[in-house]
Design brief:
binds nicotinamide-adenine-dinucleotide; 363 residues; 12 helices
């Protein structure tokens, strides 16, 4: 098989980790032609547009992209280009596995859970009203009329839409994911005790979907604050977590912390017939161009992409190569060393070289 895949290098450390990841993916022997498009700072400089139409067109055409992190400057008309890409392409499921790898410093061992975050609505829908604006005052007036509750006039307002459609879609996705990947349990995370209508709808929908999978997958529910505590105290009790957008954002960073940090946390944004793979981390601008940061998260995002393409043998080889390099803890970046100032740490590109060597040995 030969694949054409959109490549979005992104900003800050993006181009470096993307370069490392594409070389590692190519080393598996899977045939790929990358279609590189610019989004973010580079696109703004070159085309005066932070998210040119060509980017979305390319992903729509190829149905697949590998993406570096993007910085969204104020005044570009976007709250976040990353969120805009997910929304424009209806990549409604954000899948973030949190898996321990021996050799990576962490307070925990043998973590293996998957966070599935709803990507299209909730407080991330970007419906906000600024303090002091006439429309905000009008909205406050209407809300007070409907609810008979007082809102301070000097308030800003964010709207949290949670629909039955999007809840059902993400919860079904989570159960299907669990079923197909031999996972035992799905935990729906919510705050329905307080947000009775929005999170209440998410929970009600989760309970209904769970019934359809009762013979295959165990269902549990957890209130998000309690979930945060339980994840720190006994993370091994969990398997697949499904959450509305904002809780998913926060809990997935917590889970990245359980396995050793952002340097190794991979992710995917998946829709019904297309997907964009990206690390959980951002553009870390202070490290840009230094050939310093850890490429693992981006490389493991590439592994997720290979699995999405059903190139499981190539994905296994790449993941095993990453695992071996992490376990040896020699040719690894500064953040993976016991001491961050360790002079034996290597650069982004050299860590990728070490991984490629292991991929090639296994060929
Ligand atoms: P960040 O993830 O970029 O960086 C936080 C810190 O994490 C860094 O300073 C660094 O110490 C560490 N880190 C991150 N990636 C690492 C890696 N690969 N190896 C080693 N250490 C690493 O988060 P931030 O500082 O909140 O955001 C910086 C910019 O990135 C912002 O403009 C933000 O909007 C953007 N961002 C983009 C995405 C995305 O494109 N999906 C996600 C998050 C943040």
């Amino acid at each position: 098989m030969f694949y054409k895949i959109t490549l979005i290098p992104g900003d800050g450390i993006g181009p470096e980790v993307i370069e490392a990841a594409t070389r590692c993916i190519e080393a598996t022997g899977v045939g790929i032609e990358w279609e590189e498009v610019l989004a973010g700072g580079n696109a703004l400089d070159k085309y005066g547009d932070i998210l040119p139409k060509s980017v979305l067109d390319s992903v729509r055409k190829n149905r697949l992209a590998l993406k570096g992190p993007i910085i969204t400057p104020i005044g570009t008309g976007f709250r976040s280009v990353n969120v805009a890409i997910r929304q424009a392409l209806d990549l409604y499921a954000c899948v973030r596995p949190a898996k321990s790898y021996p050799g990576v410093k962490s307070h925990y061992k043998d973590i293996d859970l998957v966070v599935i975050r709803e990507n299209s609505e909730d407080l991330y829908a970007g419906i906000e009203f600024e303090v002091g604006k006439q429309e905000t005052r009008d909205l406050i007036e209407k809300i007070e009329e409907f609810t008979k509750k007082k809102i301070r006039p000097d308030s800003a307002i964010s709207i949290k839409p949670i629909s039955e459609f999007a809840s059902e879609r993400i919860i079904k996705f989570a159960f299907e994911y669990a079923h197909k990947n031999n996972r035992k349990k799905v935990t729906a995370v919510h705050k329905a005790n307080i947000m009775k209508f929005t999170d209440g709808l998410f929970l009600k929908t989760a309970r209904a979907v769970a019934k359809q999978y009762a013979d295959r997958v165990i269902f549990e529910e957890a209130i998000v604050d309690n979930m945060a505590m339980q994840l720190v105290q006994k993370p091994h009790n969990f398997d697949v977590l499904v959450l509305p957008n904002l809780y998913g954002d926060i809990i997935s960073d917590l889970c990245a912390g359980l396995i050793g940090g952002l340097g190794i946390a991979a992710g995917a944004n998946i829709g019904d017939n297309m997907a964009v793979f990206e690390a959980v981390h951002g553009a870390a601008p202070k490290y840009a161009g230094l050939n310093k940061v850890n490429p693992t998260a981006m490389i493991l995002s590439g592994c997720l992409m290979l699995r999405y393409l059903k190139e499981n043998e190539a994905a296994d080889r790449l993941e095993n190569a990453v695992k071996a390099v992490l376990a040896e803890a020699k040719a690894v970046t500064y953040d993976l060393k016991a001491n961050r100032d360790d002079p034996t740490s290597v650069g982004t590109s050299q860590m990728a070289d070490a991984i490629i060597q292991k991929v090639k040995i296994s060929l």
